[in-house]
């Protein structure tokens, strides 16, 4: 009985480790593709359109950085760091 529990626990731990490894690899691939896409867009002189950009700029002008970052994240799905960098670039 103890051996069966140990075996099942080992299988679960190895499965979780395998899934984590695949997710990390996928995250790296997505980041690499995003960097390439950013480089292509920069080369072509294109900018990514930000939904509700006018509202975000108004918040930045009013000194409401936190609300601007929050709105940017809500509209674009960006992470905190990316949103902060984008809002800082707008100011």
What can you see in these coordinates?
The chain is mainly alpha-helical and 91 residues long. The mean pLDDT is 90. It is elongated and about 65 Å long. 82% of the residues lie in helices and 0% in strands. The longest helix has 43 residues, at 2-44. The protein starts with a helix and ends with a helix. Helix 2 (53-61) packs antiparallel against helix 3 and helix 3 (65-76) crosses helix 4 (80-90). It has helices at residues 2-44, 53-61, 65-76, 80-90.
Looking at this protein, list some descriptive labels.
91 residues; mainly alpha; 82% helix; 0% strand
Question: SSE layout and pairings?
Answer:
Blueprint: H1 2-44, H2 53-61, H3 65-76, H4 80-90
Helix pairs in contact: 2-3, 3-4
Low-confidence parts lasting 5 or more residues at pLDDT below 50? none
Radius of gyration from the alpha-carbon trace, in angstroms: 21 Å
Question: What sequence of helices (H) and strands (E) makes up the elements?
Answer: HHHH
Q: What gap, in angstroms, lies between the N and C termini? A: 64 Å
Provide the structure class. mainly alpha
Label the overall shape.
elongated
The largest β sheet comes out as:
none
Report the portion of residues in β strands: under 5%
Mean pLDDT: 90
Number of strands: 0
Helix content: over 70%
Number of helices: 4
Summarize the structure.
It comes from Streptomyces griseorubens. This is Ribosomal protein L7/L12 C-terminal domain-containing protein. By secondary structure, this protein is an all-alpha fold.
